[in-house]
Amino acid sequence: MIRRAPRRWMSLVMGIAIALSSVPLAPHIAPAQETSNAELGLPRDPDRTVECDVLIIGGGLAGTATAYESLKAGRTVCLTEMTDWVGGQISSQGTTALDESRRQRQLLFYAAGYLKLRDRVAQRYGEQNPGRCWVSASCFMPEDAHDILFGMLTEAAREGRGELKWFPSTVPKAIATSPDGRQITRVISLRHRPAPGAPPLNTEPLSQTIEDAYRYEDSDRFQKTILEFVPRAQHADGPADWYVVEATETGEVIALADVPYRLGLDPQSALNPSSPVRTADPYCTQGFTYTFAMEKTRRPSGEEIPEFYWIYQPYFSYERARDGFRPLDYYDFVFTYRRLLSTGPRRTETIAGVPRPRPGDISMQNWTWGNDYRPGTAVDNLIYTHEQLVTEGQLEPGGWLGGLRTETLRRGEENALAYYYWLAFGSTDSQLDDAVKEPFPNSRLLTGFDAPMGTAHGLSKHPYMREGRRIIGRPSFGYDEGFAINEIDFTWVDFNDPFYRENLTPEMYRALWQEVAGVNAVDAIMNRLEPSEIDRRTRSRIYPDSVGIAQYAIDFHPCMTEAPPEAPGNIERPGVRQAHGPAYPAQIPLRAMIPQRIDNLLVASKSIAASTIAAAAYRVHSFEWSVGAAAGITIDFALRNGVMPYELVDNLPSQEPQLEALRREIEQKGNPTKFPDTSIFNENWDDWRPW
């Protein structure tokens, strides 16, 4: 169903006051009474009960930012994380190359905590970019990211007199709700430690340990502690005793809580016109990446090529031909792309504007036709759909095992290791027929607990995730099927391109142009102007409930067409890159963080309500911090004022005084909710073009 644009435009543009009642929740069956341990599948009573004001599940950048602001507000924060590092993208996932848009970085227009993170990096190394990489203005070591962030959390707790309860190596297992099903009352999690005589954590790759980590039973590998998280205090005069925050990498909590969500490609519509499919495809998500670090050496390392190398070798490629490049240039180009440590002087021979690699330099690899692993079918997708979870028994009491296909994780790990050996020893290229791939054996894969990734095997502790489950927000004015951020809300794409007229139905094409209408929007709708007569809006949609900011290009690493991804001759799913390209500076609406059905759950991660195209831009480092900071401040505001987050937005587009107070508070704490000069009258954003 297409949103009824005329109704929304008449309200927003002409200023007609419309009083709306609270938005009804989606139908659900509520449990008759408090969920018992047996109903949750617990084999015994919890080993420990932990009290919190805020329970954050997932210690990535978004979860860390939520904890940071909550601690500064004096809250008792429980922070759980699958790995033993906070920071997600920039630590356990190894992508310590900050993805930032050009103009935003020039102005340093970021949330306060993110600015402090960047400053701490510069203080630690004496410069912002110790890796002298060329993809980013800041490339550095993953372990340092964890240390810096944990130090910031400690400082925030001290300054705000909050309390941090940190639970590394801890995963969610079950969720209990109130009798009416509208609030989470407790969360069961499992913390694992090495069993007596077992090797340390991070000895084996994730695929070997993940299912064990989610099982209640002790094993030869792990000893388990069953944790029960509950509210710290009962607020008799308030609507909620505590809040739970979804900040996992794949949307585990929204699957466990059974709130409506989407996964994979959305159907083509006026809201997401660049989508390549007419019906939803939940199996085609963006590729995931096991990063690793490698060192340039003076002599060959003498490493042996593993047997599985030949399975994945047909996939690898330098990807893009460059006129005038010598064979050496390709290796140096890829090596310096995300170099984390540069040992040489600045005044030396350069490539891509940075010094060429020297012995002792360390590079992190994150390359599309390299260690990106891109499954896209029902037999190899990584993130299980709801139907697959049911089939696998993971939604049964005690059945949750993380919601991922373990075999695909394993193949992604092998693919990443094989890519390293291709860089060092390979002589083929799957995409550049006339290119000569020279071996560069003067390389070394960095392994061990003191290596950059902190693992015995050398791969990141967790794969870098570009996409997970995405909630469907609550129905609201103009969003009858549930709120979401969509492609047309912030893309720079030219919808005059013949692709859109040829691939959309006439009704869809007209609706598209009504959605992106600018100064003559009312005329376009009331007089049913032809698309050619409509002046296109050249800015992002402005949200009255914006609580944060985001800007990055719509950046796709598409799934592959056939299974397995590494099959010789396999190609990217056709059409997915149609949406790939620049995007306007955008906002993070509070409605995108509020799931259906459950009132004391907020989403502060890549799982916000966004289409797959929108999520391709709303996934980078500064966005994660901004949305996490918004969640932390919103929760504190809600607890202090005895209001639920959904009540702040349930009467939009009518005025919401408490929402306005929250937004002022977020801004006063140094967290922008809009970019400079944002208004319906400013449609000149050329300086902000990210590419």
Which stretches of 5+ consecutive residues score pLDDT under 50?
A: 1-32
User: Helical content, roughly?
Assistant: 25-40%
Instruction: Give the overall silhouette.
Output: globular
The number of E-state strands comes to: 21
Tally of helical segments: 18
Rg over alpha carbons:
25 Å
Mind explaining what this structure looks like?
The structure is a single chain. The protein is an alpha/beta fold. The chain has a domain at 288-445. It is 26% helix and 13% strand. The protein has 18 helices and 21 strands. The protein has helices at 5-14, 37-40, 61-72, 102-107, 112-125, 142-160, 206-213, 252-256, 309-312, 327-337, 386-392, 406-425, 498-503, 506-515, 521-526, 612-615, 621-641, 657-668, and strands spanning 48-52, 54-57, 76-80, 163-167, 170-177, 184-194, 222-231, 243-246, 261-262, 288-289, 292-296, 339-341, 350-351, 354-355, 362-365, 372-373, 443-445, 470-471, 546-550, 586-589, 601-603. The strands form 7 sheets. It has a 5-stranded parallel beta sheet with strand order 4-3-2-8-21. A 4-stranded mixed beta sheet has the order 1-7-6-5. It has a 4-stranded antiparallel beta sheet with strand order 12-15-11-17. Helix 3 (61-72) links the parallel strand 2 (54-57) and strand 3 (76-80). The chain is globular, with a radius of gyration of 25 Å. The two termini are 34 Å apart. Residues 1-32 have low confidence and may be disordered.
Keywords:
five-stranded parallel β-sheet, disordered N terminus, 13% strand, four-stranded mixed β-sheet, globular, alpha/beta, 26% helix, 691 residues, single chain
